[in-house]
């Protein structure tokens, strides 16, 4: 326990502050949250960590910033006017010789940069050049993992946020107005949820050019239903409580009651579900990529790495590393989710 | 403390302290208490909520979560064995066999998926090792003993088919199944109607003699304790502040807290003659032929199965500045009537408010009028939204009905009304959970008074409060009435409360008015039998009534 508050302090905390206290007391969940935040925060700056361009170059008393500007090779005294490949041993020698210097990122590859100067055939096992080896197209696995992790988490966050908004709106309308509105919407949801999601994805993947945007739209169309059920149930419970009656008798409008009175008190089950939904979304993206129905080929994706691992079963560095990243992420999210569920359970202290 | 016969005492609690583990460390809820219960006597633990009386009762059977509770000192010896020292198996052998317990809420303390017969048989099968037919025979005997009509037929009934009183009788049958030496009754009648309450208490008294057992009764109701207990322990904040024989303690209380409790019984706060003065006041609220029927339908063509007449053809008048008490037991339709009058429930009939007919108005047309008639609900714990600050809660109505006020003016008004209801004006940014029940009810009152209404519907406004707080709230309501000339519709099941504040009363039963008249008259000379029964039952006047 970090600091122990007195009883008086504890009683004066708002319900959310108390929930936060309980969350902090669950060490596993609390540390998981911090580890997840740090890893995700770092991965947001993936370009600075894993890139095929140096961050800064000092070449003949001039500074160059290859991350933001493109320079032709001639800038650094080479022969071509084409874009510089900073991993070319020849260029590297030029940049680093005669008192010139450059700061390279920790990992010298972007998710889509191919190591043309590899010493081993692709997929190459881990080496000093590629810390976690390369995939079957010669792309650095570590770089793809970093970018792939970032993409998965961002994708999951966006998907969850959209699902949350739609779910809350529909669930609250159902739960508040009940009667016919609820009856009809619930039937529509039942029909909608019985649509074969995977077939739809396959069909759409063949009609449209696959992209992250399309995936988000398609998955959002189905993702809100689980949440709306919980919001609806909470609204059904809450709409007859005294404070809602009191608001009604004061003359508060329906929208006012829904969003000022009912919604803040209906968020507990929704909040509890968020980490699990995020992990579910990551898993969904990974499986779709694995099946080849997901993101376009050049995008960094964990699923695609897994499927390469399956195709090249001897290349353990493909499957094992991706597996570890995936399991690590999901385990962290589940620990956070568990701690959150316990923290929001008011029956505990 | 009086000396009790040592040989005679079944249960002896010595220096017992109970602590609970919380996030903030250990909290001491019961402190060094001592008392003993002798065979054949009723010991009552009285106190307000949070005094530790239920915690004490539950400690005897070690019903607390073993991981969270810590009995830091003392002993509980039952027939010479220290229950705190024994292992889990021994305590299980005692539970339900030598000591049994009945709980407050008969609606939830029976398992809804088993028949009551099965549940009564359970302790017989576990503790007495009876065969099934023998257990069934005994169970039916017990049901007969506790006054359940047609026990053979009821044996196979599920709990939801029984009324609250019957369920409590079932609980008692179950508790008596193994001839316990000690029966712990934790607020056994609080959830029941007054007339049923009296029957159950008389039954307990009769069974106590028949089974020659001791009863430990936990209660907040001083009248009940006075009538049914032999000894009493008064608890306050985990301590026993005073104990002794009932007659001695009630006639000559020593501790200031006991004196305070005894003085907090509500008494009439309306001066004589005021009722007469109000007779010619303008009629503020008029109801004609009010009906509110709930029908349950079945099938595609919506065949009507049953109709519940919650409010059945009621006429009513409320004058300016007057308090009309609506008295009735649960299910009498008194709350529905109140909600109908304020158009929170749909009903038929004519309603006039301030000479304006309001029964046909739509919700939108009614909204500006809502300012004039307001509601205060029973439970201050559920009537304040837990995620809004006091300023938001009290100020919400202002934003709607006084839109011309700016933020500063609104705040000024909120602070003024908070002071008026006896709260501090610096609590604006705090949340409801930081306040006690009485303070919350004051906040709920502030929320409606700020709108300067002409009529307030008070739906059991003091039922969820401790007795000492109850009186303060009643006094506050009275002050507000005098100052602002507000009319009250005061709904309650509690005769004493109604007697304290109402000018006129209306007794309701099954959706109909049984009797109506000026308070003094109805209480001194009730005309209808139902009213008479209600009066005797709730005031424990007549001891000749039998179960």
Q: Describe it for me?
A:
The complex is a heterodimer of chains A (349) and B (547). With 349 residues, chain A is mostly helical. In chain A, 63% of the residues lie in helices and 3% in strands. In chain A, α10 crosses α11. The model of chain A has no long low-confidence stretch (mean pLDDT 85). Chain B is 36% helix and 27% strand. Chain B is globular.
Cα-based radius of gyration of chain A, to the nearest Å: 26 Å
Low-confidence stretches of chain B: 1-6, 542-547
Distance between the termini of chain B: 33 Å
What does the largest sheet of chain B look like?
Answer: 6 strands, mixed
Please, what is the average pLDDT of chain B?
85
Work out the helix count of chain B: 20
Helix content of chain A: 55-70%
Largest sheet of chain A: 3 strands, antiparallel
Structural class label of chain A: mainly alpha
In short:
The complex is a heterodimer of chains A (349) and B (547). Chain A is mainly alpha-helical and 349 residues long.
Strand and helix map with partners:
The complex is a heterodimer of chains A (349) and B (547).
Chain A: H1 7-11, H2 15-25, H3 27-44, H4 46-49, E1 56-59, E2 62-64, H5 89-96, E3 101-103, H6 141-177, H7 179-193, H8 197-207, H9 212-238, H10 242-250, H11 254-291, H12 302-311, H13 316-343
Antiparallel strand pairs in A: 1-2, 1-3
Chain B: E1 9-22, E2 25-38, E3 42-46, H1 53-60, E4 69-78, E5 81-82, H2 88-94, E6 99-102, H3 116-127, H4 132-145, H5 151-154, H6 164-176, E7 182-186, H7 194-211, E8 214-219, H8 222-228, E9 231-236, E10 239-245, H9 246-251, H10 256-263, H11 274-278, E11 283-298, E12 303-319, E13 323-328, H12 334-341, E14 348-353, E15 356-357, H13 363-366, E16 373-376, H14 390-401, H15 407-420, H16 437-449, E17 455-459, H17 467-484, E18 487-492, H18 495-501, E19 504-509, E20 512-518, H19 519-524, H20 529-539
Parallel strand pairs in B: 3-8, 3-9, 6-7, 7-8, 13-18, 13-19, 16-17, 17-18
Antiparallel strand pairs in B: 1-2, 1-4, 4-5, 9-10, 11-12, 11-14, 14-15, 19-20
Helix pairs in contact in B: 3-4, 3-6, 4-6, 6-7, 7-20, 14-16, 15-16, 16-17
């Amino acid at each position: 326990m970090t600091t122990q508050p007195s009883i008086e302090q504890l009683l004066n905390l708002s319900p959310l502050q108390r929930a936060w206290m309980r969350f902090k007391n669950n060490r596993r969940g609390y540390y998981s949250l911090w580890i997840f935040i740090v890893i995700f925060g770092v991965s947001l700056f993936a370009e600075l960590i894993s890139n095929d361009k140096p961050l800064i170059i000092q070449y003949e008393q001039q500074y160059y910033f290859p991350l933001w500007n493109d320079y032709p090779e001639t800038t650094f005294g080479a022969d071509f006017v084409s874009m510089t490949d900073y991993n070319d041993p020849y260029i590297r020698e030029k940049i680093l010789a005669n008192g010139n210097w450059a700061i390279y990122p920790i990992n010298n590859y972007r998710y889509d940069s191919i190591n043309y100067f590899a010493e081993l055939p692709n997929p190459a096992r881990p080496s000093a050049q590629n810390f976690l080896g390369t995939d079957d197209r010669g792309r650095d696995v570590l770089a793809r993992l970093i970018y792939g992790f970032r993409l998965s988490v961002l994708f999951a966050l966006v998907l969850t946020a959209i699902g949350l908004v739609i779910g809350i709106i529909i669930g609250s309308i159902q739960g508040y107005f009940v009667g016919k509105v609820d009856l009809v919407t619930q039937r529509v949801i039942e029909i909608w949820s019985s649509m074969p999601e995977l077939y739809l994805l396959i069909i759409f993947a063949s009609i449209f050019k696959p992209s992250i945007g399309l995936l988000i739209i398609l998955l959002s169309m189905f993702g809100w239903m689980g949440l709306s059920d919980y919001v609806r149930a909470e609204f059904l419970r809450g709409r007859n409580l005294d404070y809602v009656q009191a608001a009604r008798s004061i003359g508060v409008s329906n929208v006012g009651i829904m969003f000022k009175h009912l919604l803040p008190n209906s968020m507990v089950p929704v909040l509890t579900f968020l980490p699990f939904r995020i992990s579910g979304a990551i898993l969904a993206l990974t499986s779709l990529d694995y099946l080849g129905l997901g993101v376009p080929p050049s995008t960094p994706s964990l699923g695609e790495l897994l499927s390469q691992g399956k195709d090249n079963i001897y290349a353990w560095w493909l499957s094992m590393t991706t597996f570890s990243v995936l399991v690590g992420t999901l385990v962290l999210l589940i620990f956070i989710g568990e701690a959150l569920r316990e923290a929001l359970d008011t029956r505990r202290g | 403390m009086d000396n009790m016969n040592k040989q005679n005492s079944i249960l002896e609690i010595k220096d017992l302290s109970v602590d609970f583990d919380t996030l903030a460390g250990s909290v001491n809820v019961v402190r060094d208490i001592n008392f003993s219960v002798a065979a054949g006597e009723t010991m009552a633990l009285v106190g307000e909520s949070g005094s530790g009386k239920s915690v004490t009762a539950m400690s005897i059977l070690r019903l607390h979560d073993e991981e969270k509770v810590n009995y830091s000192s003392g002993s509980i010896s039952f027939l010479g064995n220290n229950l705190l020292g024994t292992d889990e198996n021994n305590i299980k052998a005692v539970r339900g066999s030598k000591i049994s317990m009945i709980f407050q809420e008969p609606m939830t303390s029976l398992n809804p998926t088993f028949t009551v017969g099965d549940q009564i048989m359970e302790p017989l099968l576990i503790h007495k090792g009876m065969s099934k037919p023998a257990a069934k025979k005994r169970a039916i005997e017990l049901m007969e003993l506790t006054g359940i009509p047609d026990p053979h037929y009821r044996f196979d009934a599920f709990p939801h088919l029984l009324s609250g009183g019957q369920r409590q009788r079932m609980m008692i049958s179950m508790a008596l199944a193994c001839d316990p030496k000690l029966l712990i009754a934790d607020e056994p009648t609080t959830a029941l109607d007054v007339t049923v309450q009296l029957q159950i208490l008389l039954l307990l008294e009769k069974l106590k003699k028949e089974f020659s057992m001791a009863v430990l009764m936990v209660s907040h109701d001083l009248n009940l304790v006075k009538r049914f207990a032999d000894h009493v322990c008064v608890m306050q904040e985990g301590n026993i502040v005073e104990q002794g024989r009932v007659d001695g303690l009630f006639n000559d209380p020593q501790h200031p807290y006991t004196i305070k409790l005894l003085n907090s019984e509500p008494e009439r706060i309306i001066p004589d003659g005021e009722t007469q003065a109000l007779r010619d006041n303008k009629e503020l609220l008029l109801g004609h032929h009010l009906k509110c029927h709930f029908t349950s339908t079945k099938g595609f063509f919506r065949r009507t199965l049953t109709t519940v007449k919650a409010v059945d053809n009621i006429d009513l008048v409320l004058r300016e500045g007057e308090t009309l008490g609506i008295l009735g037991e649960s299910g009498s339709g008194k709350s529905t009537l109140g909600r109908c009058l304020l158009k929170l429930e749909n009903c038929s009939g004519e309603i006039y408010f301030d000479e304006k007919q309001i029964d046909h108005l739509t919700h939108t047309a009614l909204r500006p009028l809502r300012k004039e008639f307001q509601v205060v609900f029973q439970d201050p714990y559920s009537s304040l939204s837990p995620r809004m600050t006091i300023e938001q809660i009290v100020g919400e109505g202002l934003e709607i009905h006084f839109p011309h006020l700016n933020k500063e003016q609104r705040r000024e008004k909120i602070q003024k009304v908070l002071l008026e209801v006896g709260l501090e004006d610096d609590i604006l940014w705090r949340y409801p959970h930081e306040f006690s029940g009485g303070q919350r009810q004051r906040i709920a009152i502030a929320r409606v008074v700020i709108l300067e209404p002409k009529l307030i519907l008070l739906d059991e406004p003091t039922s969820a409060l401790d007795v000492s707080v109850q009186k303060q709230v009643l006094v506050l309501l009275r002050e507000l009435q005098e100052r602002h000339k507000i009319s009250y519709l005061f709904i309650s099941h509690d005769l004493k409360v109604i007697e304290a504040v109402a000018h006129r009363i209306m007794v309701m039963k099954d959706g109909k008015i049984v009797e109506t008249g000026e308070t003094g008259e109805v209480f001194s000379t009730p005309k209808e039998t139902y009213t008479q029964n209600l009066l005797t039952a709730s005031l424990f006047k007549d001891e000749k009534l039998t179960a």
